[in-house]
Amino acid sequence: MKIDLKNKLHIFIILTVSVVCFMSVMIVLSPYMRVPLGDDADKDGIKNETDNCRNVSNTDQSDVDRDGIGDACDSCTDTDGDGYGNPGFQANTCPDDNCPTTPNTNQTDTDQDNIGDVCDQCPTDPQNDADTDGICGGVDNCPAVSNPEQRDSDADGIGDACEEPPIVMFTYNPLDPIHGEIIQFWDNTTLGGGVLQQSRWTFGDNTSSIEQHPKHSYINIGSYTVQLNVTDINGKTSTITKNITVIDNDPPEKPLITGSSIGMTEIEYSFNFSATDPDGNQIYYSIDWGDNTSQLSLGPSPSGDDVNAKHSWRNAGNYIITVTSRDTHNAESNSTSFTIRILFNIYILNPSFLQIFEQYYQIFFFKILYT
């Protein structure tokens, strides 16, 4: 094809304009293009010749272990150079290092807390001084409670700071005391981590005691707050309070006695006793049978109820039965007396004779012989 001079000129002009346009575009884009595309395989803006990860984009060029291989493509980022990689790097194919900044090729971890012994502040304490008192759990006498002084008053190997406190409790009797009545208190505390050193009582009436099991009485009726505070050898304390109501109380009335007023020896006779307590308390009865025998505590029975007792006398004569009643607060009534005449039982001489007279003539025969 033959090209004339005029066509050559046109072609030259076109090529010149094209080159100028291309150069202009490159000048405009040059701030945004660090290197030619052919020199940046991973397209991270870093030339291949200086890129520490040529095939993996890593614009920050991070290289923690400074081995010239970027972390993004380093198969073992290993700061201390012991062959175990720093944990947390995704590109690592080597085992994780339990001491990333301290060489330890044997990776010994005695307490199995994933921290190597060479960099573990407490190599035998898996909790690594959980209470942050500066003392490792292996020797800390209170691993879960901060106690840098390690005080152990009772020398039991457990620090005072984590000793169990005593569980304080007390009981008393009577449960419904009356004014002037002696109340017995008992300290029933359960020991914690050490033996008790002190018991201190306050009785709510401006009096106190340091006895372990004190006695106390109240002059006036009313409600009183009793407090017991105990302290053990480790300095642990516990406190408990209870309210005690002190009441007024009147004794029962004189008891009534019902039963036979005449009888015979060696025969058991039945008697009923009853009394009323103005406060509704239950009642005990004390009986003196008049023959040097007695029944000291019959009951308790409800106020006003009859109580039965039986007795026989060996010898003939007149006997005075004496009865007193007392309530559950030991308030005692005046006594009541009852006389019974005991006659000699002649029927014991002949059983057949006894049988006949019991059926027909017993009362009449008594009148003839003993009146």
Properties at a glance:
371 residues; alpha+beta; Immunoglobulin-like; five-stranded mixed β-sheet; four-stranded antiparallel β-sheet; 3 helices; 25% strand; rod-shaped; disordered C terminus
Describe this entry's structure for a reader.
- A hairpin with a 5-residue loop joins strand 3 (196-202) and strand 4.
- It is built from 3 helices and 15 strands.
- With 371 residues, the protein is an alpha+beta fold.
- The strands form 4 sheets. Strands 9-15-14-11-12 form a 5-stranded mixed β-sheet, with no helix packed on it.
- Helices cover 12% and strands 25% of the residues.
Overview in brief:
With about 375 residues, the protein is α+β, with helices and mostly antiparallel strands. About 10% of the residues lie in helices and about 25% in strands. Among the domains are: about 1-35; about 120-165, no CATH class; about 170-245, Sandwich (Immunoglobulin-like); about 255-350, Immunoglobulins (Immunoglobulin-like, Sandwich).
How is the topology of this model organized?
Layout: H1 5-29, E1 170-173, E2 183-187, E3 196-202, E4 208-209, E5 215-216, E6 222-232, E7 237-246, E8 256-259, E9 262-264, E10 269-274, E11 283-288, E12 294-301, E13 307-311, E14 317-327, E15 336-343, H2 351-359, H3 362-370
Parallel strand pairs: 9-15
Antiparallel strand pairs: 1-2, 2-5, 3-4, 3-6, 6-7, 8-10, 10-13, 11-12, 11-14, 14-15
Helix/strand class: alpha+beta
> In the CATH classification, which architecture of the domain at 256-351 applies?
Sandwich
State the helicity in percent bands.
10-25%
CATH topology value of the domain at 256-351: Immunoglobulin-like
The coarse overall form would be rod-shaped
Q: What is the CATH superfamily classification of the domain at 256-351?
A: Immunoglobulins
